[in-house]
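#onboarding

Welcome to the new folks! Below is a worked example of what a typical request in this channel looks like: someone posts a single protein sequence, and someone else replies with the predicted structure as tokens. Don't worry about understanding the tokens yet, we'll cover that in week two.

Example request:
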Amino acid sequence: MQYHRRRGWELPESMATPEALVLSRRSVMALGAGAALTAMARPALAAGEPETDALHPYPRNPAYTIERPVTAEAINGAYNNFYEFGTSKSVAPMAQALKTRPWVLKVDGMVEKEREIGIDDLIMALPREERLYRHRCVEAWSMTIPWSGFPMKALMDYLKPLAGAKYVRMETFYDPKMAPGQKAPFYPWPYVEGVTIEEASNELAFMVTGAYGKPLAKQFGAPIRLALPWKYGFKSIKSIARITFTDKRPKGLWEALQSSEYGFWANVNPEVSHPRWSQADEEVLGTGKRIPTKLFNGYGEYVAGLYKGLEKEKLWM
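Example response:
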């Protein structure tokens, strides 16, 4: 039998506030008894919906818990960064233009076999679970989300990078007709981000295909995105279309645009300010409150060891 040693920042799953209780009183009353029962049932697939949609909700992994309430889906879903569709936080309506099927993930570079994999084939091939994670934006706001997907380590084992690969470079789609934000000439499209092989293999690194017990909403970066909860949010690339294993450090879109403000590592640190604002605290979406920010967003017990010997690197931007 396996026993999980609870980390210092963890609390029991039972202390995580259910999403329904985070919703406003008016929204809960509006559901009514009949609607509540319907929401509890697994919905039937509509014509044209992927069969993998019916796999939700994924079983929750109790090893990953949080000490504050889950951000209501209605709040989280209406406050997003998705520059491919616009610079407003109210980008969700524009993001509905994102076409998520067919979706093929291209895998190349220093890997045992270069190939293209359909997103639904990938979801079926890997172990699925739900995790409760905090998310900290570089803009000093935060939220808490029930992500569902699979460990990035499981994806690495499935794809089999070569021994010489040191980094994982990820790239999103490029389709300015679908995503008008990509017509902006001052951004180096498509969106690119990267991590080290060691970071990608860390147990916290998570490939996300769903949230709130259902397939990933388009404004969240459907059909597959990354979640790195110890880093600032811009590292968690959305709508991944290509994964390249390489021995050269990738340069992300924001680093290419302004390297003095957005670097490769981007680990959360309240002691290191952004050049234009403090990172000492953060606004928790939906609460109107600011709370102190934690080193590595509170996940230091998992990830601090990744950066030993790298003290000369700019780990906090």
